[in-house]
Structures
1.
Amino acid sequence: MELPVIEFARSAPQRRLPPWLKRPMPGARDFGDTRRIIATSGVSTVCQEARCPNVSECWAKRHATFMILGRTCTRRCHFCAVTTGRPNSVQDDEPERLAEAVAELDLAHVVITAVARDDLPDEGAGHFARCVRAIRRACPTTTVEVLPADFHARTECIETLCDAAPELYNHNIETVERLTASIRPQARYRRSLDVLRIAKELAPRIVTKSGIMVGLGESSDELLATFADLRAVDCDVLTIGQYLRPTLDGHLAVQKFYTPEEFDRLGDAARRLGFVSVASGPFVRSSYNAADVFDEARRRLLAAVTPS
């Protein structure tokens, strides 16, 4: 596959945010409603735990990305604000509480992510599947996007989750191959590619998706090579967003703030490689405007198999 050519300027580590990285204040009523529903459910959200910069905008739209299996992750990624340590036991009633919150928010599309649970025999796959099925029972028309950890690319774990029939299986590559060991030391670049490959092989009709952060010291050639690697495992959807340092202590510094124009060029390059839906921008995250991204992917995939 011939890769597009794209050139970007390099820059030294930066602390001050550029003007395009500013967020509006939330709408008071809907933001408050979302916060109340989430608090009542007792289910965590990645919006809070990962200090997402889009929380005000999304909660004002009554959108939220739920994070199951607790608030403590068994892995320590150097870009992530989620707490690392020994997790608590899994709460058996979490699937029902999650489904009630999804119903009350009246979500047409829901994203469920989770901390890594390397401490569990199935790494949480069975609980994840129960959450999907609980939403199916409570909200039959809601489309479900899952965003699990890599399950060490164990086919039986990925199959357990695919058998619950989510519409979209999302697993983030996060960064380029050269930087993976220093940014997410307990993960493997090729293992993440295997996750997406296995999911597509097990459930060919499922939409697969991945996301990457930029601004960690990667080159444009490395980004394009990563895009090509994702397409080689038939990944359908790609999100590209700016890495923002959650804290000054314990998290990697930003090496470069990409401009909106540079994000546009990255998005165009990804589309030329064959992704059916691409979201590329400074504030893009895996679940940002996830319903719109999924709708575009589903529409284009359907058009590709429908006779003209």
2.
Amino acid sequence: MNYFLSHRNGTFALALAISFGLAMAGGTSARAADQNGGVPGDWLSRYAGARALGFGGAFVATADEPLGVVWNPAGLSQMFQNGVHFETAYLFEGTSINAFSFGVPARWFPSFGLTVLSLRSDGFERTNELNESLGSFYEGEMAFLLSASKNLSPRLSLGANVKVVRQTIEEFDAAGVGADFGLLLYLTPTLRLGTSLLNVGGPRLTLRETDEVYPLEIRGGLSKNLFSDRGLITFEIDRRSGPGVSFHGGSEFWVHPSMALRLGYYDDSPTGGFSYRFPHGIRLDYGLSDHELGVIHRIGLSFQFGGFFASSEAIPPVFSPIGEQSVTKFHLKAKTKASSSNWSLEIVDKSNQMVRRFSGKGAPPAHVMWDGKGESGLSLPDGLYSYQLTVEDQEGRKFTGPKRTVEITTSGPQGTVPIVIQ
């Protein structure tokens, strides 16, 4: 990992200048919540998905999922597996917001993504000059983002969105095009800097006669992994022309390999949420935030598949070193972004102490056999053991497979045998 710790020169200074100098330049700090009325594209600028909302909207230095392109398109390069994400939220007075996002990581070519966001408000009353009701109409806005991201080095990636926005109010509608640019830089293996420049060159919409242009927005932030990647803290500074500067921050902790809790701060309100991982790459996200009109709830569902991964499976999952099934076979699979450098399969007991380790250079073999013995060569006691495959590529990326269990049992069937006296 020496490439993370060296070359701290003009690249770092430039990235820091982009992230924080631009975000703070040109005006004093102002609460966006107090000054955003009527700003074009405010719904999109203030959008926060269920997971990002738990971070208080501070996602520019994380952005490690398909929907992350809304904050920073460079985050697509952090994805290792294909991802599909759905999201929905009901706001107030007949207003709802929905999202769909899809991302595909690539090895040699840029990673690509497609995101669709929609906002709809119903129940607006239409009247004539005499204030007589003529029925109702709705207001709707949609944004389409076509994204690409490329690693220039193992620690630096760049990304861009082509953004198409459409707005409909009654019988009027308009569309406009703009662009977003993002940068993600690993200062150390656990510390990331992210920055993005949004709404470059638009979008510009003309519903009737007056042009409305989405204001230029600059975002910058840092995120740091803690507790062997079980925890994450992040903060972000956003600046928009008009609303001014806003601050966000949040934290995440995986209390269990399947469940994470989050707590954050968005402008002047607390936020929170959680995620739960189901088998086969499915994850449920929930986020909530306080608002002067009430509590806002957001729900997201994502599915990861294919792409780059590491995986191991013991067959049979229960074996007896002194029985007919005296060994188990670990089937190993891995696909890495760069060529594989080394691999390891660790087996731990119920106290999380490693009892056996298989490892080697290059790509993992198709399988390894285990006879239920520890590193010392002695047989291990009966019980459940956890195992996990980790593969590192030549550019320092680590691919960790799901943790699974295998059982050793040397005792026979348990129970009582009834005795019948005749």
3.
Amino acid sequence: MYTTTLTNQPLTIDFASGNPTLNGEPFDWDLVKLSDRTFHIIHQNRSCSAEVLELNAAEKTVSLKINGHIHLVQLKDRFDLLLEKMGMSNAASTKVNELKAPMPGLIVGISVQPGDVISKGDSLLILEAMKMENNLKAPGDGLVKTIRVGKGDRVEKGQVLVEFA
């Protein structure tokens, strides 16, 4: 189960039953994958095109272009909701020592170098996985200590990519 807010409306999305539900109601749609990043969707006899512009698995954010309009979606799973309820939602992001690969892939771009001062959300690396480029961003403020990969390197899930001082 995930929660998000879209146009100031809170939404609950659940995939557990095999058929997606939106706010507890069945979500009946027809989804056709046109390419790695583009889809055609029919819902309630309305057609739309969707393109995944950016997917950040670490921050659970997706940037989508739907019928020409860009939407940034921030998802929260049950663990995020529990931490938020306990008042600990930002506790985990105060001090980060390293950035790990969220999935296996190929490093196709490096935006920083050792010694750079970075802020939360700054672009660090581009990881290509399943023919999609994923912009890996800084999980917090800090100083780049070492970069443990180079452009063209293949990485595994959980591999340390960048260390912070």
